[in-house]
Fold these 2 entries.
Entry 1:
Amino acid sequence: MVGGDVAAAVELSDVVVSYGEKTAVGGVSLSMPRGRVLALLGHNGAGKTSLLQVCEGFRRPDAGSARVLGLDPVGDHDELMPRLGIMLQSGGVYPWAAAGEILRLFASFAANPLDTGMLMDRLGLRKVERTRFRRLSGGEQQRLSLAVALVGRPELVFLDEPTAGMDTEARHTTWQLIEELRADGVSVLLTTHLLDEAERLADDVVIMKSGKIAATGTPASLTAAAGIDLLEVRADPGLDLLTLPFPAKEASPGEYSITGALDTRALADVLGWFAATGAHVTAVSSRRRTLEDVYLSLTSDLVGASQ
Ligand SMILES: Nc1ncnc2c1ncn2[C@@H]1O[C@H](COP(=O)(O)OP(=O)(O)OP(=O)(O)O)[C@@H](O)[C@H]1O
């Protein structure tokens, strides 16, 4: 990290991206500090890739402004590119070149590249070093794209669905690499559809819905916000839940889930309510809602809407 250089990794102000009549990003503002991992979540078509393209300088916003490492991603593109690592959603490299050649080519563009052999070993690419890109499996192409993004020791990395199509081992290696990047002070902006991935890796989460920000926060703050604990109670089926002082539903016969700010007092109230109905309670469990619960509650009305 350069001392005294305090510009945010990414600073977006009212960014709009339109494709003809279609508004893909409808006024997004966010500030991503350096050295953190930010996960951009959202349904298919929410505008995540369009927003990344603005940050990468591949698309000029139709309105609003973007600064990346304190620079204009379009106007200062040449100055910025050597400081960025970019993993596109698919391909983006020469389909006829071999995996090893591609990685060494990108390493040759960098002033102080990582050791390509080490990266190939880490990402399990040695055995396909001489295989042409277009003959690699989808997961191998993803691993190579990640290696290409990292080989130049970037300060800021953009990863568009980095583990999509990867097997479990490669996914864990990728997670480790991202954690190592953060430990080295590198900033990482990634998109993902995997909520457990975001929960594990991200310092900050931005949930997008139809081109706008629906929620932001740390995974802990998003899941710990009031009203998001979950209590599951097994009891007699068919209880009338209308008088229960918390949102509740009978998920399946005799399986009740109750959501709310369930502190000790509230838990006592809920169990007291079951006792008062005379119902026979056979099991009680509670869990903190996961990021996936929060995400689904924010975006569930979109299920099927994008089809
Ligand atoms: N080149 C384009 N021309 C027209 N419409 C586009 C273009 N690129 C994206 N779109 C539309 O803009 C919207 C946002 O697309 P974008 O790729 O940014 O979403 P996303 O959140 O990355 O989706 P996914 O999770 O499926 O990758 C979508 O409705 C998409 O169809």
Entry 2:
Amino acid sequence: MDEFASIRHWTSGRQGVEWQRERGVVLGIGDDAALINPAAPISGVGSPYEYIMAMDTMVETVHFNAVTMSYEDIGYKALAANVSDIAAMGGIPLQALISVSVPRNLGPEPMRRLYDGLYTCAERYGVAIIGGDTTSSPQHLVIAVTVTGAVEAGKGLRRSGAKPGDAVILTGPVGKSAAGLHFLLAQQERGIAALAGERAESLVLAHRRPSPSVRAGRLLLTQGTCHSLNDVSDGLASEAWEIAEASGLLVSLREQQLPRSGSMAAYAGAAGIDPLEWMLYGGEDYVLLGTMESSDAIAAQAAFHAEGLPFYIIGETLAGKPGVEMIRTTNKGELRMPLMKRGYNHFE
Ligand SMILES: Nc1ncnc2c1ncn2[C@@H]1O[C@H](COP(=O)(O)OP(=O)(O)OP(=O)(O)O)[C@@H](O)[C@H]1O
Ligand SMILES: Cc1ncc(C[n+]2csc(CCOP(=O)(O)O)c2C)c(N)n1
Ligand SMILES: [Mg+2]
Ligand SMILES: [Mg+2]
Ligand SMILES: [Mg+2]
């Protein structure tokens, strides 16, 4: 199958014309470029709105390998990670462009499966796939996604808006994806099903099929009380540092208030690993980390719970030199531990 037949094979019959139009798409896949109406009414977003644009890339051996992810998972997660950046601005995702660089010997079926996963995610979050690019790759598979979204003009939630005295909030548990990855790599090393069972199942799912927090981001935006927001791709400590530096303050987390998944903690125990390592430095959780006044955080928590969404108040911000600390309560009193700006870093 040549390049053009391949693209048709991956994308045909999945265009969903009607709901693409609801996403502002005038012309989708097939011409030199897509055409978008920049003023189309977008249901659920107030007018006037601003466009949000972001991109994220996944590279074989860096973000996935044959053991950690199926082709369906790779497609799903590549788009999910992008949708998460739209959620982190408080927006609704609209369209995506997909670039794939495919090893020559791969054959058509794996890529068709990758697109199956991609379209599953696209339909779940209402994203119109409007085009992309295709090249061969000398060795590894690379998928780069550009995503657009919309948010009420002037209201996009930035990393830089935190104020001293804010409560620090988190929209879900952290560390499950890193635990799932550890499990999968341990399996790979030993060549056996190491610690199968339901617990590992939910961790593996967290790693392979992350759920970007679009509903949570929209709720935070429409409540109008959130001062700063970021999504957790590189790890809680690293993302807290981003807010600390962008806002010019100290982020102080309380160890006891960090949401700890039972299955993650149980697996960490069995693997002989400190669960805090995964919770603070693991990454790929795609939950949202933000700040708001503490009275607003209590109200927001009630609203989240009423919607069946998790919401944790995990610390506060303080005036001071940008940094992140974690407070540990011991029987001798409170221990303030500075947290390094460590997390997943591509150049370390
Ligand atoms: N190669 C690049 N050229 C220009 N801008 C870039 C480049 N890479 C990243 N950026 C910009 O840097 C900022 C931070 O990007 P970064 O990728 O660190 O955040 P993120 O996408 O939230 O995190 P992650 O990629 O770990 O999920 C964004 O504004 C992004 O557009
Ligand atoms: C095989 C394999 N090894 C390691 C990892 C861990 N990992 C890779 S990139 C990343 C941060 C997010 O990426 P980005 O910053 O590019 O958005 C993390 C935690 C993995 N997923 N698969
Ligand atoms: Mg990025
Ligand atoms: Mg982000
Ligand atoms: Mg990163």
